[in-house]
Amino acid sequence: MGDNTVLTCPLKPNITLVTWKISPKLGGHCTLGYRTDRNETNRTSCSDSINWKYRPDVNPALEIWQVGIAQEGNYTCEVVSTEGNFHKMYHLTVLVPPRPRLYCDAQGTPVCEAAAGMPAAHISWVVGDNSHPEEEGHDNGTVTVLSRFTACSTNMTTTTCMVFHPAGNWTESIAC
């Protein structure tokens, strides 16, 4: 999320046509095309954040600037050359790191939250407990996970929460 990414396409000699077909999970389809016989590029319904990395006759790679949730989806490059037709497909998955937080609720119970992550984070406690994490999905595809520490009996004064996510892990302790 927020980084630039480059998707490569098969570079063959004597290319006559290159087409990128983009099918995002959200929003409409987009295509970028290049015809060598006319030295002509064409784009249909593509945002300004998606474009050729270089001149397509030199290298038909695609660059996506500041990747966001809207760019998640399938990207297919089709190359037509005198050697034949070639395809390369990518499935772009966007990781959104959650915003972790540990606090004490009004009853003095430790609460661990991993807000607005994609995919949903996994929460666990250092001391085993029987909590059942709650998940709340948001319109933008992110998920907030909330877990209340519910150990039956413990004489520990400090509780530690761990949040696990593909974009990074987080640990914090609290005494309620």
UniProtKB/TrEMBL annotation:
Gene Ontology annotations of biological process type: regulation of neuroinflammatory response
Protein localization: Membrane
Membrane topology, from the record: Single-pass membrane protein
Predominant location category: membrane
Keyword Transmembrane set for record: yes
One term under GO cellular component: external side of plasma membrane
Residue ranges occupied by any Ig-like domain in the UniProt entry: 1-93
Chain coiled-coil ranges: none
Keywords, ordered alphabetically: Disulfide bond, Glycoprotein, Membrane, Transmembrane, Transmembrane helix
InterPro entries: CD200R (IPR040012), Ig-like_dom (IPR007110), Ig-like_dom_sf (IPR036179), Ig-like_fold (IPR013783), Ig_V-set (IPR013106)
Gene3D superfamilies: Immunoglobulins (2.60.40.10)
One of the record's GO molecular function terms: signaling receptor activity
Domain of life: Eukaryota
Family of the protein in this entry: Belongs to the CD200R family.
Protein name, per record: MOR1A protein
Organism (species): Sakesphorus luctuosus
Gene name per UniProt: Cd200r1a_1
